[in-house]
Amino acid sequence: MKKMLLVSIVALMALASTSMAVPNLQIYIPGGEYNAATETWTTSSGNHEVWVIAANLDKGELYDIQLVASLLNGDQPGDGTLSITDEGGATTNFSATDFSYGTPPVSDPLPGHGVFPTNYAQLLVTSVTSGPYQLVNDYVPGDDGGTSLYGMIFKYTVSTTYDVVHYDAYGFYNDADGRRVSAPFSHDGQYGVPEPTTALLFGLGMLGAGIVRKYRR
């Protein structure tokens, strides 16, 4: 019994230590509000910015980073409009046929965290994080740690008429065993407020994901 208790304490300490780490990928919405319960940046404006921040690049490059825009609240593709413009001024207009139903990526699906499976569209952020690098930190209010970590910030302007759009990011890194998905359980973004039932499910999903493991490396 004592041995089991010791193992549990060690496991909890490990989770606590990883929760303080800066994730390889995170979403940030300038001017938005941070929901500490779901670890999500939120905004109520249909016209907003979304940043995809890649960190820890001094430890290795990330490949094929994708920005995922998911529909919630029972919205269906074609019920609204979604346009995403990059810093260079190139705009991608997502039509109903650009959405898929399920959980991305197909090769190694992300945790559901109260969002997936659902209708989602993807935008390629970059094929490889080749630089130039800059200093990045953990985009959480009150946390200025990680300012010595090198990374890249990709900035987008979003315009949408959907009721709710949830943002995730994922990419890949290469290790000795091959290619692996890299994506955080937290540091998401969201426009709009779901209906009460959907919001409850979303919150419970995020809580469950946080208990199991804060970040996926």
Q: What would you note in describing this structure?
A:
This protein is α+β, with helices and mostly antiparallel strands. The protein has one domain. Helix content is 16%, strand content 41%. The chain has helices at 2-19, 196-212; strands at 25-28, 33-35, 40-43, 47-54, 63-71, 82-86, 91-94, 100-102, 118-128, 134-136, 149-160, 165-175, 178-184, 188-191, 215-216. The strands form two sheets. Strands 2, 3, 5, 8, 9, 12, 13, 14 and 15 form a nine-stranded mixed sheet that branches. Strands 1, 4, 6, 7, 10 and 11 form a six-stranded antiparallel sheet that branches. The longest helix has 18 residues, at 2-19. The radius of gyration is 17 Å and the shape is globular. 34% of the residues are buried. The model is unreliable at 1-20, 197-201 and 203-217 (pLDDT under 50).
Which SSEs are present, and which pair or pack?
Blueprint: H1 2-19, E1 25-28, E2 33-35, E3 40-43, E4 47-54, E5 63-71, E6 82-86, E7 91-94, E8 100-102, E9 118-128, E10 134-136, E11 149-160, E12 165-175, E13 178-184, E14 188-191, H2 196-212, E15 215-216
Parallel strand pairs: 3-14
Antiparallel strand pairs: 1-4, 2-3, 4-11, 5-9, 5-12, 6-7, 6-11, 8-9, 10-11, 12-13, 12-14, 13-15
Number of strands: 15
Q: N-to-C terminal Cα separation, in Å?
A: 32 Å
Task: Give the proportion of residues in helices.
Answer: 10-25%
The SS-based structural class is: alpha+beta
Biggest sheet features: 9 strands, mixed
Rg computed from alpha carbons, rounded to a whole number of angstroms = 17 Å
- Work out the strand percent: 35-45%
Total number of domains: 1
Order of helices and strands: HEEEEEEEEEEEEEEHE
> Helix tally?
2
Mean pLDDT: 82
General form:
globular
Low-confidence stretches: 1-20, 197-201, 203-217
